[in-house]
Amino acid sequence: MAAMAAARSAVERPYVARGQKQARGGRDFLAPATAKQIRQRDRFFAILSHLLAKRLIRYLSARTATAIKLAEYPEPESR
User: Fold this and answer.
1) What would the pLDDT profile of 5-62 be if each residue is shown by its tens digit?
2) Read out DSSP for 68-79?
């Protein structure tokens, strides 16, 4: 069981690191430190209604979500 967990961890580690790196960048965007940055963020969200921005967000989300292929594991045995 420990070997399976170690193997899965080795597969997931690069994916998790990439997600954490992306989240660090989001922190400054979603919680800006200055009034100017708040206005910039709000302006960005205002343009999200435009099709191009929606496509960009969808692309970035899908790229991150599909960056890993996890192995299928059998159903646990009933006790």
Assistant:
1) 788 788 888 888 887 887 777 777 888 899 999 999 888 888 776 767 778 878 888 8
2) --PPP-PPPPP-
Residue type for 17, please? A
* Domain boundaries defined on the chain: 28-65
Nearest to 12, CA basis, from 73, 62, 71 = 71
Q: How many helices (H) and strands (E) does the chain have?
A: 3, 0
**By the 8 A CB rule, do 12 and 68 touch?**
yes
Q: Which residue has the tokens 């979500």?
A: 65
Is the entire prediction scored with pTM above 0.90?
no
